[in-house]
Design brief:
With 303 residues, the protein is of the alpha+beta class. It has two domains: 112 residues, Major capsid protein gp5 fold (2-Layer Sandwich); 125 residues, 2-Layer Sandwich (hypothetical protein PF0899 fold), CATH 3.30.2320. Helix content is 17%, strand content 31%. The protein is built from five helices and 17 strands. Strands 7, 8, 11, 12, 13, 14 and 17 form a seven-stranded mixed β-sheet that branches. Strand 9 and strand 10 form a beta hairpin. It is flat, with a radius of gyration of 26 Å.
Length: 303
């Protein structure tokens, strides 16, 4: 064998294109009421009638009193999002792999994350209500589980989950019939794994017999379906003890709404107006979110 054989050594190049670690789909859309077919600059998913109470009748032939039920209207406002990616055909002919499919998948993943951020905006921020959507309705200040619940400046714990459930029940939310969800991030999830009620088999069986932990990930506990997303980190803020915390969110499905004007759509076209006529991968969508009812959403601070 000639000593120059290394000249013929081969190099193997990748034959596949893979996405880097990322949240690839929306995780929160399953947890909210979804409405489609909206159009216009805003839409009202529901008109609402408030509480009224019965009056005792203690007089004969007395004038009939009138009871006026309070009414309200909830609004959702759309925002349009897009992702535009161009890919030169001259690059494609120099490559072994064709990345266009992976680029389309990356765009869909990005839109899924944007949906989750939009839903969190609707759950945690100011909503628009009233006859024409001109009334700003803030998050209900009494529906907050303090950061010191279950321990000073504490992370998420069973005491905070219990407090969230108690607030929903105090607001007359039918916790036996409603679908309840609890949105947490990885730090809150890790904190819960230190709670004996989560890890002990003496505590952690749901009504259907399934365990709380599924392959080391909390699936459901105390009547809540748990959803993990790192998108909560975008809402870090000053908690009720003047420190910096991340808000977890406990809510009933009927208390949150995602309105879709145009769902996620991806198209691949040639850009004949650009030199080389590159491929364009264009993804867009229009949607918005809101709370349907303040009393059905609870913010839980976790350090």
């Amino acid at each position: 064998m000639t000593i120059f054989a290394p000249t013929f050594y081969a190099q193997q190049f990748a034959s596949t294109v893979a996405l880097l670690a990322q949240q690839k789909t929306t995780r929160l859309q399953q947890a909210v009421t979804v409405g489609t077919g909206h159009y216009g600059e805003q839409a009202s998913p529901v008109d609402q009638v408030g509480l009224i109470e019965a009056n005792e009748n203690t007089e004969r032939f007395a004038p009939m009193p009138r009871t006026d039920a309070p009414t309200d209207r909830r609004w959702v406002l759309p925002r349009t999002w897009d992702i535009n990616q161009n890919y030169d055909k001259n690059d494609l002919i120099r490559q072994i792999t064709d990345p266009r499919s992976a680029l389309a998948q990356a765009a869909l993943a990005g839109m899924g994350r944007r949906k989750d951020l939009t839903i969190l905006d609707g759950l945690l921020n100011t909503n628009q209500t009233g006859k024409s959507g001109t009334t700003a309705t803030s998050f209900l200040a009494t529906n907050v589980v303090g950061v010191n619940t279950g321990g000073a400046a504490s992370r998420l714990n069973v005491a905070k989950i219990r407090a969230a459930k108690q607030l929903l029940m105090a607001n007359d939310v039918d916790v036996m019939e409603e679908e309840l969800f609890f949105v947490i991030d990885s730090r809150a999830h890790d904190a819960l794994l230190a709670e004996v009620q989560i890890t002990s088999k003496d505590y952690n069986e749901a009504r259907d017999g399934k365990p709380v932990l599924m392959d080391g990930v909390i699936d459901r506990f105390f009547g809540f379906k748990f959803i993990w997303t790192e998108r909560l980190l975008a809402y870090n803020g000053t908690d009720d003890a003047a420190g910096t915390s991340t808000p977890c969110v406990a809510f009933a499905k009927s208390g949150a709404y995602l309105g879709i004007w145009k769902d996620v759509n991806t198209r691949i076209d040639e850009r004949t107006d650009l030199r080389g006529i590159p491929w364009q991968l264009y993804t867009d969508a229009t949607f918005g979110a809101t709370r349907i009812e303040e009393k059905k959403v609870v913010k839980v601070w976790s350090r």
